[in-house]
Amino acid sequence: MSVKAVLEKLAPQKVIGPSPAFTVFDALKMLETIAESGPIGRSSLSKRLELGEGTTRTLLMRLKKARLLTISRRGCALTEKGKEVWIQFTTLIPATLRIEDNELTLAVHSMVALGKNQALKVNKGIEQRDAAVRVGASGATTLIFHNGRLILPTVSEDVSKDYPRAFSQIMQLLKPMENDVVIMSCGAIFRAAEYGVLAASWTLL
To answer: What CATH architecture does domain 3-89 belong to?
Structure first.
């Protein structure tokens, strides 16, 4: 089962009433935090993810039920299945990083993600932009590396010439290769930019 199918099963189904307390991207960030930090306590997870204690507990229970993690006195740790799911995601989206201001940034905080060999899944970048906006980002810009050039669909056939600062930063941070996709998401707060780039990347999976 794909990482997308596994994690989307964890998110609350849409029902009448208040919005769900967490999203699939909270689950993704929780896997990332545990994968990078090793055994970690619930309180630390709650602070890092900016989720309430109750929401964190519910999400942990869902991940545990899905056999993606274990919970012990030492803290929360990924199971072999959890590691496989995280590796699958990072194989497709190997990097999500902060990026400095450039000609393409739209707000105070900006993030970029690399999608390996995902160019055929991009049309004009509208789907990625809309996905980012739905989770609170100011927007998202989608670029494609093709024929040795970084392209911004319908806008620029050569980003190195039209947006040299953005090009230099992207190449240094992500080092895209043929048919890779670069997504840049921006937000008034860092969390918005971070979740925006995850939501936009999610459309490629």
So the answer is: Orthogonal Bundle (1.10)
**What class is the 94-202 domain?**
alpha beta
> What DSSP string describes the chain?
--HHHHHHTTSPPP-SSSPPS--HHHHHHHHHHHHHH-SB-HHHHHHHHT--HHHHHHHHHHHHHTTSEEEETTEEEE-HHHHHHHHHHHHHS-EEEE----TT--SSEEEEEEETT-GGG-SSSHHHHHHHHHTT-SEEEEEEEETTEEEBTTTBS-HHHHSHHHHHHHHHHH---TT-EEEEEEESSHHHHHHHHHHHHHTT-
How confident is the model over 49-95, as pLDDT tens digits?
999 999 999 999 999 999 999 999 999 999 999 999 999 999 999 99
The domain limits of the chain are 3-89, 94-202
